[in-house]
Design goal:
heterodimer; A: 132 residues; 72% helix; elongated; B: 5 strands
Chain lengths: 132, 131
């Protein structure tokens, strides 16, 4: 499978990095519980990003389907928690590539997109906690 | 107050579910970050329900579920799977395990207490019918 066969997402301002509804839900839970949540989730996410990105990059380089599938799945789950829908969607494509035994099949373009979206999400999360 | 055990390797997911079930659902919550600790805690704590992640490193949700079912002290605790799986085949496999329910991740923390209770009521009603 070539990179062209994956769904390369439209870049830019169309989809926000973070789903406003998810963010509001988390804030609502934080208000109702009286326990700090948003800042902790953001910090957990930002801490895990370098590890996940390095693992995905390594899995592509090594053609390791198992690691690619499992790491991308875990990253998708973390992205979903903070409402990073587009990032979660990209992770799902890596997860599927691993599941289908295609870790070595031209994922470089998609990885570049993952890097770019991860930066966008990280910036949005940093902005979010700066407001909290 | 009823007690729920959350078994999930992802700290963020545990935190969201914990706050939701404790503060919005009035549950007592205990947590485990992997399957083997989850089985051990289930034996010790005897929760009324278990919210079990599927995709975990090491002992995954399926293996954890089997271990819980294989132990007389935990076999009858209702288990609700939480999964980010999307394929129909995976979801069908999960439904066939005999678990009390299945929730899709990311869970909505505002509806989680209701969703969990509903799953437990359904399985409870089904068990009553069998008697």
């Amino acid at each position: 499978m070539s990179a062209e066969e994956f769904e390369l997402l439209e870049p830019g301002p169309v989809a926000p990095a973070l789903d406003p509804k998810t963010v509001e839900t988390l804030r609502d839970l934080e208000r109702r519980s009286g326990v700090q949540l948003v800042r902790d989730l953001v910090q957990l996410f930002l801490n895990i990003v370098p590890l996940r990105m390095e693992a995905i990059r390594g899995a592509i380089a090594d053609g390791d389907n198992f690691v690619l599938e499992k790491t991308a799945h875990a990253f998708r789950s973390s992205a979903g928690n903070v409402g990073a829908i587009r990032l979660a969607h990209l992770c799902e494509q890596f997860e599927n590539a691993g599941k289908q035994g295609r870790a070595a099949a031209g994922l470089e373009l998609l990885f570049e997109e993952l890097v770019s979206e991860t930066r966008r999400v990280s910036a949005a999360l940093n902005e979010l906690i700066a407001k909290v | 107050m009823k007690k729920v055990l959350i078994i999930d390797d992802e700290e963020g997911a545990r935190k969201i579910a914990h706050l939701s079930l404790k503060h919005l659902g009035n549950w007592t919550v205990v947590e485990a970050c992997n399957g083997s600790d989850g089985v051990r805690l289930a034996r010790m704590e005897k929760p009324d329900a278990i919210l079990l992640d599927v995709n975990m490193p090491g002992m995954d949700g399926f293996a954890t579920f089997e271990a819980l079912r294989g132990d007389d002290s935990t076999a009858r605790i209702p288990v609700v799977f939480a999964t980010a799986a999307k394929s129909v085949r995976e979801l069908r496999t999960l439904r066939k395990t005999g678990a009390a329910g299945l929730l899709l991740k990311p869970v909505n923390p505002l509806s989680l207490p209701h969703d969990l209770r509903q799953a437990l009521e359904v399985i409870s009603a089904a068990n009553e019918t069998k008697k």
